[in-house]
Amino acid sequence: MIECDAIQARMPDVVHARASWTEAERTHLVGCESCAKEWRLVQSAAALFRDTVVDIEAIARRLRSRAAAPLPTPSLQRTPRRGARLALGILAAAASVLLLVKVLPNGVPAARPSTPATAVAVLPELDGLNETQLEKVLSELTVVEETVTPMRLPRLGDLSEAQLEQVLRDLEG
Amino acid sequence: MTVVAADFPNDPELVAAWRSGDERAADQLVRRHAPALGRYLAAAGAASADLDDLIQDTFFRAFRGMEGWRGEGSFRGWLFRIAGNLLKDRFRAGKGRIFLAIEDHDLANHTDPEAELVADEVGQQLLEGLTRLPRMQREVFLLRVQQGLDYTEIAAALGSSPGAARVHYHHAVKRLKEWLS
Question: Does the model's ipTM exceed the 0.90 cut?
Answer without folding.
Answer: no
